[in-house]
Amino acid sequence: MRDSRYDILFEPMAIGPVTAMNRFYQVPHCNGGGYRDPSAAAEMRGIKAEGGWGVIFTEQCEMHHTSEITPFIELRLWEDKDIPQLRRMSEKMKTHGALAGIQLAYSGINGPNLYTKEVPLAPSALPIRTFTNDPVQARALSKSDIRDLRRWFVNAAKRSKLAGFDLICLYGAHGFGIFQHFLSRATNQRGDEYGGSLENRARFVNEVVADIRDAVGDCMGLTLRVSLDETIGELGFSNAELREFIEMNRDLPDLWDLAQGTWEDCSGPSRFKEEGAQEQLVSGIRVLTSKPVVGVGRFTSPDVMVRMVKSGTLDFIGCARPSIADPFLPRKVEEGRIDDIRECIGCNICITGDMTMSISRCTQNPTFMEEWRKGWHPERMNPKGESGNVLVIGSGPAGLEAAWALCRRGYDVAIAEARTEIGGRVTLESRLPGLSAWGRVRDYREYQLRQRPNAEIYLDSALSAADVMEFGFQNIAIATGATWRRDGVARQHVVPMPIADNARIYTPDDLMAGRMPAGDVVIYDDDHYYMGGVLAELLVKNGANVTLITPSAFVSDWTNNTLEQATIHARLDEMGVDIVLNRGVIRIGTDHVVSNCVYTGKTRTYPAEAVVMVTSRTGNDTLYHDLVARQADWADAGILSVRVFGDAEAAGPIAWATYAGHRYARELDEPDRGDALSFRREITGLAAE
Ligand code: ADP
Ligand code: SF4
């Protein structure tokens, strides 16, 4: 049962005319599915309802067609036609007593309108401010436009009510919502009564709140999501100005939702941001208003949550990523199962689903966004199939997730691990600069497995095909990982590159095993995710003189999708790493590399006593192929199935490995689906011509 020190988290709290059953508040968060995958997004919110959240919000919902953020896929409430899909979501949210919230977004200077082709409207005429630097400008809202916009907000509020929501969040944070655009002197350079003084800049939000109150305020709570600090220099909406704004407008919304200025700051990865990193910016705001306050900070520890409430910093504990990694977090606190909380590792893979307009994944919770598509529940597995036991070979994220999920299905599971420690790449990578939180992928699963009578872990057990044939397990799950290549093969070179015989070549595996180059070291990064940048940090800390060469225009290019690319570049630059962009490496000598410009081919030489190849990985699949070669003997050995998955099958980020392990466990002994699609999807209903 619940520890009494967490009782305070379960107190009911009023938000205007409605009351939340507890202080666990799932703030709006994207999921990459949005309007394209309405049932998948709705079911995901429904799972959070089951997990005990007191408040559950949608992602941002574009409330009028004159402002949208294509190519990003969020929700839309442009006409009555959109109501049924949103009602499906609100109904799911309310199944276990949560308040259902909708976040209404008018993207103003952040909406390029690539789909609707409408001219964007913003407080002042400026270029659109997006991740993609679209070559589009907004025109300034006229007074009559402002009247229209107020009416559109009222229309959207009425539709939100019809769609069954209890709460409306007006979006004015992260640089994405029009309320911030009006509040900030950077984006509001108007000379009329909507610009200039803070009172004038706050006029629009005051008008919209009053309009919506009149329309739906009797039954719906109104929250305002504002930036804690715009962090764009002197003109930006600063933390000091925010405090002034809240003091001047103490009772404006029914709840203040405080989020950091840019999304990159607000959803900072654990590599650069601790849990509760926004505390200083939030602290002291609570006393400026009589209304409750919610804030975020990748909170996964109920003790930190209690401290936030008891110190008078927050009334509600806002969570996006922690609610993705463990939708059952509140329920686990309630049931006294703190050790069962699957803590977010702060990798921001979930965000990449939105940034790549695909559908989100979560490293820690492979069921995220598969609740409807595949019927995967984060806490419940499908019943056990016909066979009885599984030998899992390899204890990396793929093997550990498979083992833990198989255990829950009721299989007897043995894990054999060649090394003397568990966790595979996660254990090794969690020792790299800034990545310690990633160890939670191992910790959660190891702890769970150790509680189970039907799981055994054998360390220091490198298995050969002959060993496996002898053991008598029915199912063989091969999750033996991958090895970084030494020969330069990745994207620039699809076959091995010219390397002098006595050149000193290192791979990330060498560095993680403690074999460290010194002196002038070139990192050749043709992988483009975090590894090249992280190893640059490691090498500088070890005293090396580091040059990072990459054919991309950005260092750690793919981390644009995890919102950390700019921070990585700044960190490496501050550490003295020589960052060389748009250049490849075509030849490695004993004391230098020859680099080529990716556009012109012009070459240049860089001194290099050693080269670290951050290129690609080869699956460790020898064991798998050895077993396949003995398929004729499987029946005699009692073997029913042999499967390879995770990095051994095809290397990818850790989230791909946990997903692969989970999928293996779900599908074991299940009927073969043949050529059928492996998940459900929705197709837009055809109009009647
Ligand atoms: P993934 O990301 O797919 O889980 P990892 O590389 O993290 O892959 O983990 C693979 C694990 O498998 C490593 O810990 C490695 O030591 C282990 N391993 C590799 N080959 C064998 C083998 N033949 N027997 C037992 N363990 C193995
Ligand atoms: Fe946390 Fe990573 Fe999961 Fe996102 S993907 S919720 S950051 S563990």
TrEMBL record:
CDD domains: TMADH_HD_FMN. Keywords: Flavoprotein, FMN, Iron, Iron-sulfur, Metal-binding, Oxidoreductase. InterPro entries: Aldolase_TIM, FAD/NAD-bd_sf, FAD/NAD-binding_dom, NADH:flavin_oxidoreductase, OxRdtase_FMN_N, TMADH/DMDH_FMN-bd. Its cofactor is [4Fe-4S] cluster; FMN. Residues 9-339 form the NADH:flavin oxidoreductase/NADH oxidase N-terminal domain. Residues 389-624 form the FAD/NAD(P)-binding domain. In the N-terminal section; belongs to the NADH:flavin oxidoreductase/NADH oxidase family. This is FAD-dependent oxidoreductase. It comes from Roseinatronobacter alkalisoli.
